[in-house]
Amino acid sequence: MSPKVLVTGASGLLGRAIMRIFKEAGWETVGLAYSRVGPGLVKCDLTKPEEVKSLVEKEKPEFIVHAAAERAPDAVENRYDEVCKLNVNASGQLAALAKSVGARIIYVSTDYVFDGTSPPYKATDPTNPLNKYGITKLEGEKAVVAANPRACILRIPLLYGKVETIDESAVTCLLKLVKSSEEKYVSHYERRYPCLVDDIARILRDLVLQLIKDDSITGIFQWSGKQRLTKYDMAMAMAHAFSLKHNIKPDPNSVPGAQRPFDAELDRSRLENLGISHHMDFETAIKECLSEWV
Ligand SMILES: NC(=O)c1ccc[n+]([C@@H]2O[C@H](COP(=O)([O-])OP(=O)(O)OC[C@H]3O[C@@H](n4cnc5c(N)ncnc54)[C@H](OP(=O)(O)O)[C@@H]3O)[C@@H](O)[C@H]2O)c1
Known about the structure:
This protein has ten helices and eleven strands. The chain is α/β, with parallel strands linked by helices. Helix 1 packs across helix 7, helix 2 (about 50-60) runs parallel beside helix 4 and helix 4 (about 80-100) runs parallel beside helix 5 (about 130-145). The longest helix has 22 residues, at about 80-100. NADP nicotinamide-adenine-dinucleotide phosphate (NAP) binds near residues 9, 13, 35, 67 and 137.
């Protein structure tokens, strides 16, 4: 079966990979964007309920993959009320619209719903976000499920992929430090499980296929990369991948800015039990992503 899928955040880091992988699968894919409306994308401000309603009712998708969000923790700290309109209210509205047009919705969430003190986290473990971004994404989960109890949620960790600017991902921006001749300290504290966006897009594709096979599936799914790396480890992998001379030093302190969980490793077993698993080795994948930036 070839479903019709509406993808929000289609111009974003994850959304671009979702669009590519879903189109490769031969699916009819309608991608929404806001400020970066490139070829083949439809402009829609998700914070404008009337705009969203008429678009969903016109397109009548069978699936909605909701990836749009403000996802930079430091940006959310000072703009909490404004960000809630997108991360919380729009998510609830999309879930309600999915129900009214008979579509299944998958809401993309984050490992930042956990405080990072007792990993690995099962989907059912108590949540306790440490920063306002994590709060908005958790409130988004709640709004989605309240509006549509058949909704699915996919929690994912730190992402990287092919970027439009080197600062687009918190992983790729480390290359600037690796290339610098000056001594640079990079956090060797918080543990991360970074994922290539293509892996997450394939997981979403496989999850949609599962929902087509078994319409009774609902609830929270989680995916986590299979390598535990600090920002320092990631920088070292970049240096190694490109044989770069560097002046990077491990910083024992946490990443500056909004408080982040120490280790919010997500338990992957629910997806793995469905036979869904995609993980590219970090050094191999980051080399491909960054080749044009070195
Ligand atoms: N990046 C990570 O490391 C990470 C980690 C865990 C979870 N996540 C989650 O994964 C999802 C995708 O993240 P990402 O990194 O791909 O984000 P991103 O690159 O920042 O993209 C955000 C997307 O949201 C869209 N958007 C922003 N404001 C909008 C509005 N008012 N109306 C409609 N669309 C709007 C943007 O559109 P324009 O660019 O066209 O304005 C863009 O397509 C998010 O839900 C995020 O919370 C991300």
